[in-house]
């Protein structure tokens, strides 16, 4: 039994770690606070992403219907100057695939899509977001960190999601209660020279209320 499995067993938390996207439907179980799709970015794509100058990494934030995700992500890549090629094609298609998967799972007509290029300690404090749910996938750099707590203190054990693996997280607005005790944060990287490329997807049910 791994350390995270022991920690989960001691709490009321159900953290699902799956090896295929279909199994992410476990996230909808009442007792499931988070789900991780354990996977790896193709090696040649990861190597390409890691070598890129940070200035050409795509970034942007927008609320949009699912059918415009491909066009919007392509626009973000064009605006940043991300080199054209099979690796860029894979990245764009993967973002569309994750958006489609998440939208279908959560039954969201609109998504808030955010591509962040992070070099600081953004969101370095452990927290739970004031949303219903969120998908986070780190394409470059250290993945999202998470842990379990039974009080207001930071988790005593911290775990890091593998680069390229999406994590689905419940927020404080998710109807299921009580609080699961799972907190997460962006890894503290300021001063290390590391650059992260992070995709964040949130469901939006009324875009007029989120503009």
Briefly summarize what is shown.
The protein has helices at 3-10, 43-51, 69-80, 86-106; strands at 14-18, 32-37, 60-65, 110-118, 133-140, 145-148, 159-160, 167-170, 182-185, 196-204. By secondary structure, it is an alpha+beta fold.
Quickly list its features.
211 residues, alpha+beta, seven-stranded mixed sheet, three-stranded antiparallel sheet, 10 strands, 24% helix
Topology:
Layout: H1 3-10, E1 14-18, E2 32-37, H2 43-51, E3 60-65, H3 69-80, H4 86-106, E4 110-118, E5 133-140, E6 145-148, E7 159-160, E8 167-170, E9 182-185, E10 196-204
Parallel strand pairs: 1-2
Antiparallel strand pairs: 2-8, 3-4, 4-10, 5-8, 5-10, 6-7, 6-9
Helix pairs in contact: 2-4, 3-4
Notes on the protein architecture:
The chain is of the alpha+beta class. Helices cover 24% and strands 27% of the residues. The chain is built from 4 helices and 10 strands. The protein has helices spanning 3-10, 43-51, 69-80, 86-106; strands at 14-18, 32-37, 60-65, 110-118, 133-140, 145-148, 159-160, 167-170, 182-185, 196-204. The strands form 2 sheets. It has a 7-stranded mixed sheet with strand order 1-2-8-5-10-4-3. A 3-stranded antiparallel sheet has the order 7-6-9. α2 crosses α4 and α3 runs antiparallel to α4. It is globular.
């Amino acid at each position: 039994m791994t350390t995270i499995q022991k920690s989960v067993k001691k709490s009321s938390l159900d953290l699902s770690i799956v090896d295929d996207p279909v199994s992410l439907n476990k996230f909808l179980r009442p007792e499931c606070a988070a789900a991780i799709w354990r996977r790896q970015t193709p090696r040649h794509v990861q190597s390409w992403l890691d070598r890129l100058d940070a200035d050409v990494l795509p970034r942007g934030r927008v609320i949009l219907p699912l059918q415009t995700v491909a066009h919007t992500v392509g626009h973000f890549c064009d605006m940043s100057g991300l080199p054209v090629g099979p690796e860029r094609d894979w990245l764009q298609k993967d973002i569309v695939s994750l958006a489609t998967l998440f939208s279908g799972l959560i039954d969201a007509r609109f998504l808030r899509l955010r591509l962040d290029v992070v070099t600081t300690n953004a969101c370095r404090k452990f927290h739970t977001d004031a949303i219903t749910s969120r998908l986070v996938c780190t394409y470059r750099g250290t993945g999202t960190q998470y842990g379990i707590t039974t009080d207001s203190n930071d988790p005593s054990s911290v775990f890091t999601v593998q680069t390229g693996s999406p994590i689905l997280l419940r927020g404080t607005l998710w109807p299921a209660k009580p609080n699961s005790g799972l907190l997460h944060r962006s890894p503290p990287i300021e001063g290390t020279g590391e650059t992260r490329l992070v995709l964040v997807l949130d469901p939006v049910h009324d875009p007029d209320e989120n503009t």
